[in-house]
Amino acid sequence: MKAAALTLRLSVELARSLGRIARAQGIPKSQVVREAVARYLAPSGSEVHSPRLTASTLAARWKEVPRLTPDEASDFHDDIEAARRELPLPASAWE
User: Fold this and answer.
1) Within-domain flag for 17
2) Is residue 68 part of a domain?
């Protein structure tokens, strides 16, 4: 299959997101973009399926996923607890 080259400019934020997704999936950024464009341009009702992910591939990729430091995890926990306290209680279904 012949391929056409394309150059595009991304915002710094979008480029970082693209890099994170590519690293997490263990594939090149260009492949992430190709799959995203294919999904975007696919006729409605059809889907482009990514290759199946085996357990061994997932286990290998899991080692590469960034982890929170203990301080980051503690801050994240505190943020979640604060958000829960600020949420209003749901209305009673019996009222």
Assistant:
1) yes
2) no
Q: Could you give the count of Cα atoms lying within 13 Å of 35 in the half-sphere of its Cβ?
A: 15
* Domain-located, residue 36: yes
Q: How many domains does the chain have?
A: 1
In a domain, 30, yes or no: yes
* Residues 23-79: tens digit of each pLDDT: 999 999 999 999 999 888 887 765 656 678 889 888 888 888 889 999 999 999 999
Three-class HEC string of 12-75: HHHHHHHHHHHHHHCCCHHHHHHHHHHHHHCCCCCCCCCCCCCHHHHHHHHCCCCCCCHHHHHH
pTM beyond 0.70? no
**Residue 61 CB coordination number (10 Å):** 15
